[in-house]
Amino acid sequence: RRGAKCTAATSVDCLHDGKPSLKLTGMTTRDLRGSRAWARREFSEHVDLTECRSLGLWVHGDGNGEVLDIQLIDRSLIRARDHLVHIDFTGWRYIRLVEPATEETFDYDLWSLKRNLVGFQYEAVRELRLQLVAMPKDQEVKVHIGRLEALREQPHPLTNPVLDVNGQGLAFPV
């Protein structure tokens, strides 16, 4: 996006579990929260994440307040799922992103239409974008990513659920 840039490179100066990390470096000359820059990977074949909709990753933050957006884009190239990490910390941290961001994406001008938030095709993920948004003006930010993985869902049926209300058990038939 105009006024913003991002580079992605393998880094050995910030190892995670003894392995190189992916270093995202970004900068913007704009004041707008909508300024963003990204690195992307388009998959040669669609990736099926139907049973792996949550994401887990190790992030090394610089504490500058930028936001890392892990964005999945489906085969339509219109619909996306954004997972936001606020980089208000320094050092390594494990982040588990169970649900995608919805309304918050409009805070960063990631999508201009709400229709982009519905009907995502998890069975046909075409692209992964790592975006830096809300970067401080005229200040370089650096975020390292260790391991990024889609987490397999393990649904468990509810068996005889009981809700405790003021010491009284309220059973739900399931």
Q: What's this, in brief?
A:
The protein has strands spanning 4-16, 19-28, 36-47, 54-62, 67-74, 80-86, 90-97, 125-133, 141-151, 162-165, 168-171. The protein has 174 residues and is mainly β.
Describe the structure in your own words.
The structure is a single chain. This protein has 174 residues and is an all-beta fold. Helix content is 0%, strand content 55%. A 5-stranded antiparallel beta sheet has the order 1-2-9-4-7, with no helix packed on it. A 4-stranded antiparallel beta sheet has the order 3-8-5-6, with no helix packed on it. A hairpin with a 2-residue loop joins strand 1 and strand 2. The chain starts with a strand and ends with a strand.
Q: End-to-end distance, in Å?
A: 51 Å
Task: Count all strands and give the number.
Answer: 11
Range of helix content:
under 10%
Residue windows where pLDDT falls under 50 for at least 5 positions: none
SSE pattern: EEEEEEEEEEE
**Spatial ordering of strands, largest sheet:** 1-2-9-4-7
On the 0-100 scale, what is the average pLDDT? 87
Outline: globular
Strand content: over 45%
Q: Please state the structural category.
A: mainly beta
Alpha-carbon Rg, integer = 19 Å
Largest sheet: 5 strands, antiparallel
The quaternary structure here is single chain
Total of DSSP H or I helical runs spanning 4+ residues: 0
